[in-house]
Structure formats: C-alpha cells, structure tokens
Write a structure and sequence with these properties.
The chain has 229 residues and is an alpha+beta fold. The chain has two domains: 163 residues, Sortase, Chain: A (Beta Barrel), CATH 2.40.260; 37 residues. The strands form two sheets. It has an eight-stranded mixed beta barrel with strand order 1-2-3-4-9-10-8-7. The chain has a two-stranded antiparallel ribbon with strand order 5-6.
Length: 229
C-alpha cells in the first residue's frame, strides 16, 4: 500500500512563501645558448603543466564536494537514508501546485525527498523532507516516524555539512487539516519538518487519510564536515 504523499495538500490551495602569471625562472647558459632556450621551454612547460594539474585537482575536489550525497539519519527509529531534491527548478511543481512530488516507490525504503523550494536544512526557514510510510511489499523509510519523541536528534548532511535538529513535536493530522502555513510558510527560525502518511488507509482512493507531521529545531554549533572515505 503506497503512501499518498502527493495528496498531502490536495484539498487546500495555499499561497506559500519560499525561504557566491606565474613565471618560471631559468638560469642562463651563455656557452650553450640553443640548449638554454630549450631548457627554459621545458621548465616553462613543466611549470604550466603543474599549474594546470593543480587547478584541475582543485576543480575535481570542488566537483566531488558538490556531488557529495545528501543524507538524513534518525538514530532513535533506525533511519539512515539518502536525501534527494524534489520539485522542478522552474517551479512548475512548486509551492502553488495542488500536489507535491514524492520519492519513487522503487526506492521507498532507502530514499527521502527534500522540497527544493523550501530552505536548505540548517538555513533560516522551513526545510521540508518527506518519505513514504510503506509500499505493497512492506515498510518504507518513514514507517516508524510516529514513534519519534520530543528531544530526539535528527542529522541531515547537506552541502557537505552535517546539521543537527532536535524534535519538538510529533502530530498525526487529517490531511484536510495539514498545517500548510506553518510547514511551508515564511519564518526566521531554522526549522526542519519530516512528513509521511498515517492513520487509516482508504482502499478506494489508495491513500492514507492522515499525515504524520514532525517538527524539529536546529541546534547551533553542531554543524561539521563529515568524514568521507
């Protein structure tokens, strides 16, 4: 049974707020002028090659840093999952839509999604992460989200930095009562929201009737670059 996250706000139509010449010195060899010129050329070429290799390595490191996977870890409920961006960059599936994209069911047990029109986790604003509760073959990544309790830590690695959030509330709400303004609205706080489905399952619509909505507050001073092997 698939979690109908795409229908989280299907019954509401809110207006949501969203919320950087090196030169090589060569010695002179007057007794062998032609060879001196050749030596200077070789040294110059070696120097230029070294500069190119250094710059290339720098670009490669930056590329690797940019390509580092985003992850979310919630130790108290055994969640350790990849975090992928959701929503089109041009906003075609953005906050004014009646439904929101969700991670693919094929990766429901290992993948969560971050809505890219919300804040980057750790930045000021509301950062929203969603995950499926289950599929027809069994539990998915946020199956035990309802078991979270206030104070439980949540770790998100984004842009190469790990941020810590502590859970502040866990609620099960009917989908028509989803707190759209609170979750997707503008705020100066550094908030994280974890969302999945819950409650009874409607076999006619193939959707759960409720949402599990977890809020978590950023803990300053816990950000660090994780180790990579």
């Amino acid at each position: 049974m698939a979690c109908g996250l795409a229908a989280i706000i299907a019954t509401v139509s809110p207006a949501l707020a969203s919320g950087s010449p090196a030169s090589a010195a060569a010695g002179a060899f007057p007794r062998h002028a032609p060879r001196a010129a050749e030596t200077r050329d070789i040294r110059h070429e070696r120097h230029i090659q070294g500069v190119r290799e250094t710059r290339g390595a720098g670009r490669a490191r930056k590329a690797r840093g940019a390509a580092r996977p985003w992850t979310i870890t919630v130790p108290s409920i055994g969640v350790a999952a990849n975090l992928v961006p959701l929503g089109a960059p041009d906003g075609s599936a953005g906050p004014d839509a009646l439904s929101l994209p969700v991670p693919p069911l094929a990766k429901a047990a290992t993948e969560t999604g971050w809505y890219r029109f919300t804040a980057v986790p750790g930045a000021a604003g509301n950062a929203v992460i969603v995950g499926h509760v289950d599929t027809y073959i069994g539990p998915a990544v946020f199956y035990n989200l309802y078991r979270l309790r206030p104070g439980a830590p949540v770790y998100v690695v984004a842009d190469g930095t790990r941020q810590r959030f502590d859970v502040t509330s866990v609620r099960e709400l009917p989908k028509p009562s989803f707190p759209v303004s609170e979750v997707f609205g503008s705020t100066k706080r550094h908030m994280l929201w974890l969302i999945t489905c819950g409650g009874a399952f409607d076999y006619e619509t193939r959707h759960y009737l409720d949402n599990i909505v977890v809020s978590a507050s950023w803990v300053p001073g816990h950000g660090k670059v994780p180790r990579h092997t």
